[in-house]
Amino acid sequence: MNKTNQPSFDGKLNKAKEPLHILHSDLMNIQTETDEKYVFVIIDEYTRYTWTFPLKYKSEVFDVITKLHTEIERQTGHKVKKIHSDRAKEYMSERLINYYKKHGIIDEQTAGYAPSSNGIAERYNQTIQRGIATLLTDAKLPNDYWMFAMNYYTHIKNCSPHSSIETTPIEGLFDILPPLHRLKAFGCRAYIQHPTLTTNKISPIRSPRIFLGFDKQSNGALIQVNDDILTSRNVHYNESKFPGITNINTIYSANHSFAY
C-alpha cells in the first residue's frame, strides 16, 4: 500500500492558520449496554469546534469523515487541508487513503504507538467522559442515555469560551453567536406546549417530561415522553426539577447529521 501521503507526526504541533486547516481525530471505546460501542471525535484545531459521533463499528469512520468533510466545507467556505490521527487500522484503509489523495488532504499520523502525539483529541476524550458522567449523574439518568449526554455536552462546549482561542468555537467556525438562551439544564423537567383548541394561547402539557438536548436536524428540543422521544420548539423548562428515570429503558440511536 502506498503511504507517501502519510507523514509521521513527531509530536510538534503545526499551528493551524485558519478554520479547518487541521482536524484532529480519535476513536474511543466506551462501556455501554447500547449497540454503539465507540465515540468518534473530530476537533478543528483552529477554532476548537468539536464533533462527536457514536459508532457501532470502527469501519464507520470512513463514512463519517467523508460526509463531514463535504458538509462542513459547504457550510463554512473553508477547506480541510490536513487530518491528524493515530495509526489505528480504521485510518489506514486503502479507500480512506485514496479519498484523502483525491481531495488533496494530508493524512498526518502519530509516530508509532504514541497517544500523547495525538494530544488534542486524546485530552478531549478524557474531558467528554467526565462530562457525560456528570450530566447523567446530575440528571438522575441511567447509562442508556449516554448519547444524549454526549451530544449535549459537545454542544455546550462548542458554545462556551475556549482558553486556546479568543471566542467560542461556534463563533470561530460558523461566525454565529452561541444560542446561550437555549442552553438548559440537561435532564430537567420540561413541558411541551400546544395551542388550545378554543384559543390560540399556548398551554403546557402538565405531566413531567425530560429535556435531553436538541435534535441536530430540526434544532428542536428533544423531550422524553414516557417511552417516546419527541421533538418540539414550544417547550417550558423547570431547571430546578429533575424527574430522572427509574423504570423506563429507552435507548436512543443518535442522529448522524453534522449540520449545526
Automatic annotation (TrEMBL):
It comes from the Eukaryota. One of its GO terms (cellular component) is nucleus. Pfam families: rve (PF00665). Keywords: DNA integration, DNA recombination, DNA-directed DNA polymerase, Endonuclease, Hydrolase, Magnesium, Metal-binding, Nuclease, Nucleotidyltransferase, RNA-binding, RNA-directed DNA polymerase, Transferase, Transposition. The keyword Membrane does not apply. Residues 15-177 form the Integrase catalytic domain. SUPFAM superfamilies: Ribonuclease H-like. This is Rve-domain-containing protein. It comes from Wallemia mellicola.
